[in-house]
Design goal:
DUF2922 domain-containing protein; DUF2922; alpha+beta; 4-stranded antiparallel β-sheet; 1 helix; flat; about 45% strand
Length: about 70
């Protein structure tokens, strides 16, 4: 499963990560940046360290799980 991770900095200077499951691919950096700007503008989320104040980064993460059959 792939996730889009949006990383922001809050007022305490800590990084806060929000994940979106199954992002549309290929991921458009301009669209992601605009969405992150809108989250900041709307003050959509608050954290224990205060409001979000800046974009840090975004990335797509893919997790692969392989079961091991025990003998």
């Amino acid at each position: 499963m792939k996730k889009l991770e949006l990383k922001f900095e809050n007022e305490d200077g800590k990084v806060v990560t929000y994940s979106v499951d199954n992002p549309i691919e290929p991921v458009d950096p301009a669209t992601v940046g605009s969405a992150m700007d809108e989250i900041l503008t709307q003050n959509a989320f608050t954290t224990s360290g205060g409001n979000l104040v800046a974009k840090k980064s975004a990335r797509v993460v893919e997790r692969i799980v392989q079961d091991i059959e025990l003998a």
